[in-house]
Amino acid sequence: MQELSYRQIFHTLGKSVRxxxxxxxxxxxxxxxEVVIECILPFITAQLIDQLQAGCGMDVxxxxxxxxxxxxxxxxxxxxxxxxTCSIAATGFAKNLRHDMFEAIQRFSFSNIxxxxxxxxxxxxxxxANNVQMAYMMIIRVALRxxxxxxxxxxxAFVTGGPMAxxxxxxxxxxxxxxxxxxxxxxxxxxxxxxxxxxxxxxxxENVSGIRVVKSFVREDHEKEKFNAASGSLYxxxxxxxxxxxxNMPFMSLAIDTIYAFVIYxxxxxxxxxxxxxMNVGQMSALITYGFSxxxxxxxxxxxxxxxxxxxxxARRICEVLIEQPDLKNPxxxxxxxxxxxxxxxxxxxxxxxxxxxxxxxDVDLHIKSGEVIGVIGGTGSSKxxxxxxxxxxxxxxxxxxxxxxxxxxxxxxxxxxxxVAVVLQRNVLFSGTIKENLRWGDENATDEELVEAxxxxxxxxxxxxxxxxxxxxxxQGGTNVxxxxxxxxxxxxxxxxxxxxxxxxxxxxxVDTKTDxxxxxxxxxxxxxxxxxxxxxxxxxxxxxxxxxxMDNGRIDAVDTPENLLRTNAIxxxxxxxxNKASHDETMSELDNEANVQGKxxxxxE
Length: 607
Fold this sequence. Notes:
Layout: H1 6-14, H2 21-53, H3 58-107, H4 110-115, H5 118-161, H6 166-209, H7 211-216, H8 220-245, H9 248-274, H10 281-323, E1 343-350, E2 361-368, E3 373-378, H11 384-389, E4 399-404, E5 407-408, H12 414-419, E6 421-424, E7 433-434, H13 435-439, H14 448-457, H15 461-465, E8 474-475, H16 484-496, E9 502-506, H17 514-527, E10 532-536, E11 548-553, E12 556-561, H18 563-569, H19 571-580, H20 582-606
Parallel strand pairs: 3-10, 3-11, 6-9, 9-10
Antiparallel strand pairs: 1-2, 1-4, 4-5, 7-8, 11-12
Pfam families: ABC_membrane, ABC_tran
Subcellular location: Cell membrane
Protein name: ATP-binding cassette, subfamily B
């Protein structure tokens, strides 16, 4: 990732403030008023002490008391107002920030998502957003209040105590330099820590999503060790950082003790030796109060400095998501109509990364007519799924072109293209909600009758009717309360509701029996006869009634032909078929030979 400047970070994050600008501006205004009033209070208190020394009456005391109470109430009102506006601004900013990140992620193409791990994106949306929210809250209120209080306190200290206030300037500069040095030391450590946060979340996500596998292989102890290693590494880094940051408080305490000792000693000496001419008790009291306010503000500033330092890396990580540009974009004048479901691969080659050692697809030349049923078969890693991902433009080709309806897929509006290409994956995803709500991802305006019809075609209606709430049954997150086969059939029904020009099944009937699989394919022919159907399968029975079968091998097309011809001529298809249909192979081959002999005799007789 490119290193971002502070200007880029502020500019990028600033866009998420939006409707909370007014609250963000009101906060510093109220803080300034609060600080000014607080700095005036010791000055008035010093005057009251001087009046008491001079033997003033109760009328004078009541006058000063009324002023002090009024200013204290005004200061409280300003402080409370700043707290309210600051909270609204910071939480609103964080809400917009999470919204903007989520929106940016939704626009990402697969290649963009490949550059960020899922756990890293989750961390940026949660932990990093919270860190930036806290930093923003501190910046617009406490981070402004602390330096303002230091400046005003030092100014009033010079007004009150004269040259003696120079010690405040010296201490402030020294403390500032120390804090800055500590920040420079810990910044690189925080970057390393947040990368380890990602790894920790990776471990948690992987374990939770695969908990059934973990338990079935009794690997709980191994997973615990992995998690403890990631957590322990994070712990050691945090301890190291905290040890460095722990120097803040001792330095602050030393500064406070130094100023108190200096002011009390030299202030008392000045009062005694000059009999109040150079400095009186009221001035000394004000000077001590200003010193205390200044150092408390510096202490607060040191805490803010730590928080902002830690949040800087969070801000960079968030900005990386916000400024990431989708690799796939709509053309300037996109097409909004897909004429038919024809698909053409014109000498297509594709690689997932420029660093890849070989092409995932190599010189693929394939032409599919609209309405054809195409099977795709091949061994593991033969790039079957990669082939179909280019049709809906989840990736762009490295070389060559993919055409749908006679036009390059890069000429279409992305939403238009993907609405006409329905894909049902092997790892089907159902979202938390009712069955109806999940099905209407295919067509949000579908009637109940259309839902039932699609489910009957996908062989899902039968098991839905056995559920307590039928189509209103609630699906848990990830579809954990339905079986793998049920999940696949629901996802097929969802895809059918789109009535797409192209339907792609990526091994999406692997969890259903062959009888049900056959019924589903029969339903396709009757319900969407004009739709091009591309069926990726491991079982030859799933593609036996395809018009043609594409045999993939190591990213290349090894053969394209009818199932019968491939059984005679293609070794890869024959090996797969033999493995799965060993018992009936001899009978099938005998039938094919008989057909060939009969056909040959008929040709001879005709001659």
